[in-house]
Amino acid sequence: MTETLDAPARSYSAHSPLAYLLSLADEAAQVSDQEQREDAETAVIHHLSRSYPYSLAQAIDVMAWQGYPAVRDAGRVFWEPSAVAWLDGGLWLHHTVRSTEDDGAIDVLTLIVPCTCGRGYSDITLDSEDMLMEILTELRPTHGQSVHNGALLDCAIVPAVPKLDI
Ligand SMILES: [Zn+2]
Hints:
Blueprint: H1 17-51, H2 56-59, E1 66-68, E2 71-73, E3 76-79, E4 82-88, E5 91-100, E6 104-114, E7 121-126, H3 129-139
Antiparallel strand pairs: 1-4, 2-3, 4-5, 5-6, 6-7
Bound molecules: zinc ion.
Zinc ion binds at residues 115, 117, 119-120, 148, 155.
């Protein structure tokens, strides 16, 4: 993260051509972020209506999805744009579209489940409605929590407090 304190002092007037151009770039970046959010929300809604028409598409209001722009640092994309929905009970769904040279664009839908130990989450990549039903059947006895397995450290993948700006 860039610390504001490290930025050099501004050496141009607030009414200079440079100030105008820099604010133009700032506005363009914000529009692009907003477009990425909306595209991420549209992508997950389409994916659910295609692949999870009887479950997730019915259960989650389209307005519940919160899109996020790509996370970049020094021009490199660390995370693709994504969308997140809160399911209640500590469970989240996360969706992103991953581009690979071999397979093109792939929808990656992840169910984020709190662990019974209370210290972390397990993330489960879903590949079909059938698989989702199997997982939900397993989660029913624990009311939507994954059973802690210390040997596998399966709940250590995602920190206990997800950093989501909602
Ligand atoms: Zn655990």
